[in-house]
Amino acid sequence: MSDSVVTVRPRRVRVVCWVSAVTLFVVFSLVATSLTGATGNGYGTFQRGDQFAMIGLGVFGALGFLLFTRPRVIADAKGVRVRNVISSYDLPWEVIRGVRFDRGAPWASLELHDDDLLPMVALQAADKESAVEAVRALRRLHQAHLAALSAGQSAPR
C-alpha cells in the first residue's frame, strides 16, 4: 500500500473569508469610532462602552467568517479524516464505498456502505482543477486499499 498522505483545504473560500473578516472588522471599528456624542433625538449619548461593544461585534462577526476556513481533508492508507465547518469525522477505508464529485455539486462527498453521503466541504467545485486532482488522489488511495484487501483475501492461509 502507498505511504502517501493527501491533505486538502479549500483555496478560494479561504481567501474570500479572510478578506471578508478583515473588512467586517475594519468597518465595525470605523463605525465604533463614529459613535460619539448624543443620539439622533438627544435622549441618550454614546459612551466608550458602546464603542467597545461595536468593536466586539466586529470581532465576533470576523470569527464567524473564519469558521469557513476550517474545512480540511486528510487521507492516508488507513482512512480519511474530514473536518467540515462544525463537524469532524475519522473514517477507515472499510466504511467508504467511493469518492463522489457529481456534476453541479458544490463539493465532493464520500459515499459510505450504509448509503450515507458525507460531504467534504474542503473539496469545493470553486477550486476547479485542484479539487479534481484531490478527488483523483483520494480515489487512488481508496483503490489501493481495495487492492490490498483483495490481495489479502486471495492469499493462501
Task: Summarize this structure as a short list of keywords or feature phrases.
157 residues; alpha+beta; PH-domain like; 2 domains; 4-stranded antiparallel beta sheet; 3-stranded antiparallel beta sheet; 3 helices; 9 strands; transmembrane; Low molecular weight protein antigen 6 PH domain-containing protein
How would you portray this structure in words?
It is a single chain. The chain is α+β, with helices and mostly antiparallel strands. The chain has two domains: 12-68; 72-154, PH-domain like (Roll). The protein is 43% helix and 25% strand. It contains three helices and nine strands. Strand 7 (96-100) and strand 8 form a beta hairpin. Helix 1 (12-34) packs antiparallel against helix 2. The protein is elongated, with a radius of gyration of 23 Å. The model has no long low-confidence stretch (mean pLDDT 89).
Short summary:
With about 160 residues, the protein is of the alpha+beta class.
> What spatial order of strands do you see in the largest sheet?
1-4-5-6
Give me the number of helical elements. Answer: 3
* Helix percent band: 40-55%
Query: What is the CATH superfamily of the largest domain?
Result: Pleckstrin-homology domain (PH domain)/Phosphotyrosine-binding domain (PTB)
Provide the number of structural domains.
2
Strand content: 25-35%
Number of strands: 9
- Helix/strand-derived category reads alpha+beta
Mean pLDDT across every amino acid position: 89
**SSE order, one letter for each helix or strand:** EHEEHEEEEEEH
Q: Mind describing the biggest β-sheet?
A: 4 strands, antiparallel
CATH topology of the largest domain: PH-domain like
Shape: elongated
Please tell me how large the radius of gyration is. Answer: 23 Å
CATH architecture label name of the largest domain: Roll
Terminal CA distance reads 20 Å
Identify low-pLDDT runs: none
The CATH top-level class label of the largest domain: Mainly Beta
Domain Low molecular weight protein antigen 6 PH: 70-140
Keywords: Membrane, Transmembrane, Transmembrane helix
InterPro entries: CFP-6_PH
Protein name: Low molecular weight protein antigen 6 PH domain-containing protein
